[in-house]
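Box 3.1 — From sequence to structure: protein-serine/threonine phosphatase
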Amino acid sequence: KKDIGASGTRHRHLHAMFEQLRPEDSIKLAVQLESASLVRVRYLIVVSTANSKGESILLGMDFPHSDSSQCTIGLVLPIWSDTQVYLDGDGGFSVTSAEETRIFKPVSMQTMWSVLQVLHGSCERAVKAAVIPGNGLEWAQYYLRHIESDRFCLNEWEAMNDLESVRRDSNGQNSADRMSDERLIKEHLRDIMRTEDLDNLTSKMVHSALQTRIGFDMRPYKEYIDNEILVTMAQMDKPSKIFDYLYLGSEWNAANFEELQKNNVGYILNVTREIDNFFPESFTYMNIRVYDVESTDLLSHWPNTYNFINTARKSGQAVLVHCKMGVSRSASTVIAYAMKQQHWPLDVVLAYVRDRRSIVKPNEGFMKQLQTYSGILNASQQRHSALWRR
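Predicted structure (token representation):
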């Protein structure tokens, strides 16, 4: 019943926020933020418009209390091409746009992860569309004219008292001690996130749990912990199904035995130097021991990785191809496989794979190798067709 009530409240709030928008605008994401008041409810929404591709704004919405069916606008923050997003090291993030900085603290880590993904996408689109003052976002003026929240709400949107936590404090430690502490923090952090409900877990709760478990002051590690939370959130996303027999994923996916079994995975292709094989007695492994740097030679491994993936396909089992995040090394290897297996050009495969895993981004060195490999495959196909014509 509690969930039904919460869902009804969110639906009512979403409807009220839509009522504040122009007909041609839409909400890409709405996340609830922490509030200094025990009564008031605050949301940050990302708004786009049908008329201008690549343009987005952030609106801060205020509800007097959770049962309210009406809200007011308390903040308008345009996303320009120079807009940047930073973690603040205290469970929130800051957005700096045209020399104006605002701090936001989502109510849980799950909502934090969601909003950061959308914000980074919005910032990338603003860069591509060259959205600068005087060249775009004229429609934001409509919302600036409709800021109607009271002074208490406006003060909270304008609060800047946490900015000092952006600075990293080394606490006078030497680097070896700090690295040792960070390894310990990472180990406990992952255990906490593996066992807790992420929809209700906040960054502050994680910091507190870490301090209780480990026993030393976590304040010098605020920035490290928040960054590691986001890395872990990214890794905890499910592996992406590229084909029925081929999954692309992260270190976390490679360590999730139940998920591997559920996906009928019998083969694992580990494209990292830094990550061990977690279950060597249960799966057939192939290792490509390389780092994610532009100088790494992946191309020479692709004939062997192609054969390994095909062995899995013919066996009737699935294969997981992973690196640390499932973004660059493993993604490039999957793209190379798909080009050869499907006889698709590089741009088609890139679009296909990104459609199934939006965070895919081979580094520049790997992109050049994919272009070279595409040329090799084209030449090979032309030779075969020439032989058939004889």
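Summary of the box: Residues 175-235 form one domain.
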